[in-house]
Amino acid sequence: MRVHITSLYGMMGVVGVSQRRTAEIGRQLGFNELGIFRYPVESDTDAELSKRYDGISAGIGSGDIVIYQSPTFNGTKFDDYFITNLRWRYGQSVKVIIFVEDIVPMMYQGNEYLFPQVIDMYNKAHALIVASENMKEYLIEKGVVNPKIYVQNLWDLPEKVDISITPKFMKRISFTGNDGKFGIMDAFPESDVALEVYGSDKREDVPQNINFNPFISDEHVLLNKLREGGFGLVWAENEHVRNYMHYCNSLT
């Protein structure tokens, strides 16, 4: 028996990083990685999509376990095609576990129409892994009848941190994220407290105490920067985003 775990490539930002981090932990446990590249799936014919599936799943055999990190952001069609074909080809001989790290119909307003397809896909799996008890209850309300739903309560960051270093007290707050999504800049007042924003485009119409920094993909570099002192902040002005984070406090 082998255990396989999918990993997303060609995706910038924390989504791609988090999936590859999770796959790396899996490899340390002896899992086999199934690489999935993000691409414009709508350009594929059914025959081309079938070939992609065959290439990704070639190493899967009877008796194996497949952990599918969802979503791949290749569209619901791609994800459902993969899960459906695994179940059709192997039946009960391959156990399919969907690791629900984000839910597209909840992430973006206007995508709620995708819920029936996504819920149907979740019900095809042998088990689900979700980010919180709130998410589990919400999915059940939405129609998930899968009897095996496991909550991953505690996330770990596989990065060495020197805990002997004590950060200094500084009037500085660090925020990592896209301001277009979270809206922190318009809510942060002009004061003697500095706001260090990582990963957002620079704006000119903000107070002088707001400083812009590029997105840092290397967690080690970011952690060293944050350990200089100050405080970290999780923030969401947008009500839709705030509600989503209530359910999906994911590893991203």
From TrEMBL:
<dbReference type="InterPro" id="IPR058592">
    <property type="entry name" value="Gtf3_C"/>
</dbReference>
<protein>
    <submittedName>
        <fullName>Nucleotide sugar synthetase</fullName>
    </submittedName>
</protein>
<feature type="domain" description="Glucosyltransferase 3-like C-terminal">
    <location>
        <begin position="173"/>
        <end position="250"/>
    </location>
</feature>
<keyword id="KW-0808">Transferase</keyword>
<dbReference type="InterPro" id="IPR058591">
    <property type="entry name" value="Gtf3_N"/>
</dbReference>
<feature type="domain" description="Glucosyltransferase 3-like N-terminal">
    <location>
        <begin position="3"/>
        <end position="153"/>
    </location>
</feature>
<dbReference type="Pfam" id="PF26337">
    <property type="entry name" value="Gtf3_C"/>
</dbReference>
<dbReference type="Pfam" id="PF26334">
    <property type="entry name" value="Gtf3_N"/>
</dbReference>
